[in-house]
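lol so apparently i was supposed to do this last week
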Amino acid sequence: MAYEKWEVYSPSTKELLGAMEETKPEEIANMFAEAKQAFEMWRQFTVRERLSYFEKLRDVLLSELEEATSVISKSNGKVKLDALVADIMPVLDFLSFLKKDAAAILQRQKAKTPIVFIGKKSYVEYMPRGVVAVISPWNYPFQLTMIPVLSALISGNTIIAKPSEITPFVGRYMEEIFQKAGFPKGVIQFAHGGKEVGEAVIHYKPDYIFFTGSVATGKIIATEAAKHLIPVTLELGGKDPMIVCHDANIERAAKGAVWGAFTNSGQVCMSVERLFVDERIYEPFLAAVKKEVAQLKQGSAIQHDIGSMTFQKQVSIVKEQVADALTKGAILETGKSPSEWDEDSMFIEPMVLTSVTDDMKLIQEETFGPILPIIPFKDEKEVISRANSSEYGLNASVWSSDLNKAEQIASELVSGAVIINDVLISVANHHLPFGGAKKSGIGSYHAEQGLRMFCYEKAVMSDAGKKRSEVQWYPYEGKYDDFKRMIQSFYGGSKNYSVFVKSFLNLLKKSK
Ligand code: ADP
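anyway here it is w/ adenosine-5'-diphosphate bound
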């Protein structure tokens, strides 16, 4: 589908949300010109001055919580509580994090100076890169745009954001709240539309690209970025394992699994996509999961737990994976077989599948839907190896009452994050990095590096400038043996300080 001008309907309520118009390529050229101009001003603001705009943004958002929740929920199909708690709250929490910690993270950092450079001082400065492109997806359309945008803004960059065409009114809404907060012209601009608009944004060579989305698009973006040596961060998919040990709190683990697999209809890069349970507790655990699923309410009203899928393409992927699994012998413990799905509805009932095997697509490929495959395991070694067998490594969880054992398993997992006796929450702790291992991505954001990644590091060494010369400068004559003695006495396992000092003083004398 082309996204030049298109009508947008809510996937859950089916209501017409309005018509959207694509940003034209020539407008993107102007946006870059404005962003470059604005950069010259914005980069000179102090963090505190930038934060004053962020505070206005926070106030706008807090005064419009209902509107914000509604536009996210209607655009994506997620229930309002998911929009409020998982899309909006993390952004507000991130704004608090920035208010408290950004100045310290971005200020000049003192560095040590080795003894051979005695008399000099060293520090690192974090310099904004310029115009940053943030290309974002539709599953958490608000937080996955806002957090990288705010991270790049606070460090002094100006932004071209390209939100997802699947949830365009969230993109429009974000644009509006920045306008209402009074951000200076050109500091943050939005390009609306699909893939072509994303391509056009990259075409104008931003100074950094922050991308969240699929592996396939991530590869295309990395390839384009490489042609111009544009640095990128890629936040891609996951096939996250959940490991339930025999000594886990079964009720808690079952509730956690059901939420971790079905929140946002499973359209979460960190959702539980492979659940491994110790065979000794398999039966009671499965019964507890089924009991939880039976209580879930699906719909688009305030009392509902699970909303709809966001768009047809994703429904088709889920359908294909479930059909493939059922043909290969999987058992559907809850939910409906794809042949019984209502073609006109974007709601998919939560599905728990057992008797799943490694040759099924739903074990190999990212699903992004409300499917929870449950797989029994015999021992820890086996489950660690199976959990690590995926080409992804975004998030994982380990459930056990023995925290030492859980931590040991956690450190064996090849994963950007591991959560013990809980699911998903590491992404909401802004003091922790967020990013993936293996095909789940390149780089991470949040926490200190989440701000510093949008800066280039400037290493500064400074000398008072009073000495005439330096030991390593010309002339070299007569210095070789002193340098050799200095190196031998200083860099070996046992240091000989008297030889070091003597040879160093000799060198100083020869350099006067
Ligand atoms: P999904 O298939 O799950 O929607 P994508 O990775 O295709 O995820 O999309 C994520 C974001 O990347 C969206 O904003 C989309 O418009 C954008 N996008 C898709 N293809 C390209 C591309 N070739 N260049 C730049 N941006 C793109």
